[in-house]
């Protein structure tokens, strides 16, 4: 059984922590590896930060055009190894192979976008802001930047930050989720080959103790976090209290509105893909489906039809549409939430509980579930489920739907399905969320756009990806300059 090692200063080194936890395949419960977890990982952080800091001193002086060369090599290596990495994601995280391949494609696109850093971090210059005086602003790197990643996109989320951070001249220290550490373990094996100086990218395994050591370390200048809202809030507060720049993306509860003029067939297919893709374990999964004016239940029937056709199983099998939940604890949590909805008055239209998958009886499976008529005053309507559960709610108008959406504590995504341009425009203008979909079920920003969560879905100012990442990973310096010449002596 592989005991995972850290990647520090270009070497694979064992952790100082002896307590190990199992990394399990969520479909089979096979133990894939063991990962260190506990207070001893703080010593690993100490070692990694020392390496990152030393590497920063010379890496920050390397010309930007040279800093992006290893990223071109990384892109090629990720493409060459995409299938092997996709299988690893599926084995440790549970999603289907097609979903794992798609996730890696998004990672590669971030590497490609970061290759434009020589242009993206260019300066601004104003000549003659006063007689003979010029002023310019440059962007300089921050220093050692750390990333704390969640379990649900092991191959993509570190790439919302990693390529931009190093292209801007910082060094980067990653802590993957202890639930899915194998994908980035493999990626580090590729990073070893791209010609980066030792210490520019380091990786330390662990959990909360590791995170606290990162948040407390004085040499770490910036923290990029993605995970649940409670932890995001904690990271933001503690990181800021320790003087760090922080971007912390949190959880979600994404509403989708279907107007009577939407194309029923296409809409129901897109919505079920959004709700059940990655078994609902996506921060951009549609959760509450608001049907407006569906008097005869046509939309509801189409959603039911589409959801009940989805095949749940082991993600490595090609025909499977939906894999398991990440852990037994997660499965129990989702089952309890379904029960909570029922106790609050919801009716079960499609029940995915107690549906074992043949051949994988020990897997953490819940099949597609639909609850209808949720209590708008209840708890479930406000709670992130992070599982394959669609909650149907009826409303009379787009006004009611917008009022409901804008009372949401989260603000990761809101979507509208319609054939009316006027409704679409109003919705994208008024909905209180940072990522909007119009006839789109997963409004995931491409690498050149910021991943724009709002409210309790994001703590900070600058998001991951694109220009926001360039701004997050640099600090501005303004110089006002005068060179004396004969004519500039006269003020
Ligand atoms: P999580 O918050 O449990 O863990 C995320 C990371 O934080 C892990 O690396 C973990 O080791 C660490 N951590 C966990 N508890 C901690 C604690 N008490 N103190 C310090 N560190 C701690 O999240 P998860 O279960 O891995 O991921 C699922 C969550 O992430 C969902 O809520 C989902 O919506 C959210 N998510 C958000 C986005 C986004 O872009 N907004 C993207 C993906 C996932």
Overall description:
The chain is α/β, with parallel strands linked by helices and 491 residues long. It has 2 domains: 2-250 and 457-478, Aldehyde Dehydrogenase, Chain A, domain 1, CATH 3.40.605.10; 254-438, Aldehyde Dehydrogenase, Chain A, domain 2. It is 35% helix and 22% strand. The protein is built from 16 helices and 22 strands. The strands form 6 sheets. The protein has a 7-stranded mixed sheet with strand order 14-15-16-13-12-18-19, sandwiched between helices. A 6-stranded mixed sheet has the order 9-8-7-10-11-21, with helices on both faces. Strand 3 and strand 4 form a beta hairpin. The radius of gyration is 24 Å and the shape is globular. The model has no long low-confidence stretch (mean pLDDT 97). The protein binds nicotinamide-adenine-dinucleotide.
Taken together, the total number of domains comes to: 2
Give the termini separation. 76 Å
Number of β-strand runs: 22
CATH class wording of the largest domain: Alpha Beta
Q: Which fold name is given in CATH as the topology of the largest domain? A: Aldehyde Dehydrogenase, Chain A, domain 1
> What's the helix count?
16
Note the main sheet: 7 strands, mixed
- Fraction of helical residues: 25-40%
For the residues shown, what is the average pLDDT?
Answer: 97
In this entry the ligands are:
nicotinamide-adenine-dinucleotide
CATH level-four homologous superfamily name of the largest domain: Aldehyde Dehydrogenase, Chain A, domain 1
The computed structural class is alpha/beta
Strand content: 15-25%
Radius of gyration: 24 Å
* Quaternary assembly: single chain
Strand order of the largest sheet: 14-15-16-13-12-18-19
What overall geometry do the principal axes of the alpha carbons give? globular
Annotated CATH architecture of the largest domain: 3-Layer(aba) Sandwich
Uncertain segments: none
